[in-house]
Amino acid sequence: xxxxxxxxxxxxxxxxxxxxxxxxxxxxxxxxxxxxxxxxxxxxxxxxxxxxxxxxxxxxxxxxxxxxxxxxxxxxxxxxxxxxxxxxxxxxxxxxxxxxxxxxxxxxxxxxxxxxxxxxxxxxxxxxxxxxxxxxxxxxxxxxxxxxxxxxxxxxxxxxxxxxxxxxxxxxxxxxxxxxxxxxxxxxxxxxxxxxxxxxxxxxxxxxxxxxxxxxxxxxxxxxxxxxxxxxxxxxxxxxxxxxxxxxxxxxxxxxxxxxxxxxxxxxxxxxxxxxxxxxxxxxxxxxxxxxxxxxxxxxxxxxxxxxxxxxxxxxxxxxxxxxxxxxxxxxxxxxxxxxxxxxxxxxxxxxxxxxxxxxxxxxxxxxxxxxxxxxxxxxxxxxxxxxxxxxxxxxxxxxxxxxxxxxxxxx
Amino acid sequence: xxxxxxxxxxxxxxxxxxxxxxxxxxxxxxxxxxxxxxxxxxxxxxxxxxxxxxxxxxxxxxxxxxxxxxxxxxxxxxxxxxxxxxxxxxxxxxxxxxxxxxxxxxxxxxxxxxxxxxxxxxxxxxxxxxxxxxxxxxxxxxxxxxxxxxxxxxxxxxxxxxxxxxxxxxxxxxxxxxxxxxxxxxxxxxxxxxxxxxxxxxxxxxxxxxxxxxxxxxxxxxxxxxxxxxxxxxxxxxxxxxxxxxxxxxxxxxxxxxxxxxxxxxxxxxxxxxxxxxxxxxxxxxxxxxxxxxxxxxxxx
Lengths: 412, 301
What we know:
The complex is a heterodimer of chains A (412) and B (301). With 412 residues, chain A is α/β, with parallel strands linked by helices. Chain A has 13 helices and 18 strands. In chain A, the strands form five sheets. Chain A has a six-stranded parallel beta sheet, with helices on both faces. In chain A, strand 9, helix 7 and strand 10 form a beta-alpha-beta unit. The longest helix of chain A is centred in the last third of the chain and has 23 residues, at 321-343. The radius of gyration of chain A is 21 Å and the shape is elongated. Chain B has one domain: ABC transporter involved in vitamin B12 uptake, BtuC, CATH 1.10.3470. Chain B has helices spanning 3-30, 37-54, 63-86, 91-112, 137-159, 161-171, 173-178, 183-208, 216-230, 235-255, 261-275; strands at residues 127-130, 133-136. In chain B, a hairpin with a 2-residue loop joins strand 1 and strand 2. In chain B, helix 2 (37-54) crosses helix 8. Classes of the chains: A alpha/beta (412), B mainly alpha (301). At the A-B interface, strand 10, helix 8, helix 9 and helix 10 of A face helix 1, helix 5 and helix 10 of B.
């Protein structure tokens, strides 16, 4: 396999050896030394939430895909059976709407001739995307969707769809382990929306809490778009919970945080999961200070070239998880390109087979192996909004800042 | 469910009222279903965001600039676009306002992105103790504004020559026109005023919650719900409709769970449409139908 630009390297297994550079930046820099790709473009299609409630996630994902495609093309393209072929990326806006995900993904295959698909974010969007991939028998890879909820959506097992991200069981331990960094009363209140991940994650937090000495003292479930959280905040406040975990979309998290502030409820740690990942400091303003979420990339997690991608994007997307989203997406192109190269063909079945055999592939995100269940699980960490950045606060060996508690943004 | 939750829900109904009032005015006077109403609310919020980023003032003060600006833009839009379509067909203004909604969403997404933005104000992040209940200041502000706007609108409509002309143009445009009422001007002023009220709602909404382009459609639906409950064109009824939505959402949220709040509001709306199709506070049609009974007489009430 020749995959000079992506910074990926195969650590063995079924992946062939890679002419990979040590990082993405140097790989891009070496592009001038390579010959331009000559073959027919390989079309990769992606349906992204560029607008709608999850629209905040679209731009960094698109940036990651585009940068990886450019880097690979600049370095000569993908070696497909001895011919260096460029990648071509087709992007469609799914408006954060699962039904539009379905239509746009089908269009990518039938209208644009995509031979492989790249996914977006969250189970509500990635599951219909994966369903289309399985129906149309086109390999599809997503990089920002919790893997258990995604896996659970297809009891028979995914055939052409793959997902590389954290495992929710591990993710839901992060809140407790990171909260252990400060003294709390070990009481937790859950605010869950009624989307798939809200249901699944809520159940996991309830199941996990006891193992780490925490007690779920209350839970409120509500539909996305809820505007009045006051009585539920009062309920949470009455329980005295020192830890608040909310699995909600960004607008709802802002409303919830404003309500907590107004009602003078200041937990020791507060986790606007999903919503707090990207742009929460702009959405909630000063209230975002001290809001924590899980993270999925760290400079020292074994990745190859991730820091270069991070540094190249932090000015645009900030020092935090939006830039980590760029890295995740960049890595998905690396994984897909690696599979195409090893398949030696753009036949979807051949790519699918090679994709399933991905093992110990060093990418800008982490070392990735796709399991028999089509998941590639990467380790989770905890980050916290501190100013405009999201430094890693847990685990200790990767931490770049100390956890602030109680949550400063919610101080009465 | 506590009394506190009900009071907060009722007061939050003030925000719903502000969102809905412009919709009711435009339909009541112009007979136009303004599908762009939600995006006008959003426009008010975004304009306030822009101003507060440049000048650190309370977002409500931005209405001094936002209100007139949105009024002028909306009045011009009415004169230059909708006015030309009003005589064409019933569908034309509907399609045009839907187009404005889509254009607005695209424009705001291009300018501001899709990440929610919000403004900071002390009244959006505090609460006051009233009879042992913690009442969100946001809700008090929204309700107070709604009452002021409702009363002012009602006074203008019923106690001024302008209001008389406006009501006349709504009830019988042809006759009003022969009596010297400039119908086109009345419609432009109505559309502008409705938009300015929507902009005020946007400022409160964007400060108390947040704003993003995809909010336009849910706000439109919310507005319709409130308007239908209160009675299309019934100004005081809009306040009652807003409060009712707030109370039902809070009550069902507290008693059964917030998941069921929007369902309950929609079920209530359906029941009202069956039982009181013209809204809770609009008098039912007289038993003996009058010749050429004005269909939108409630506007003038």
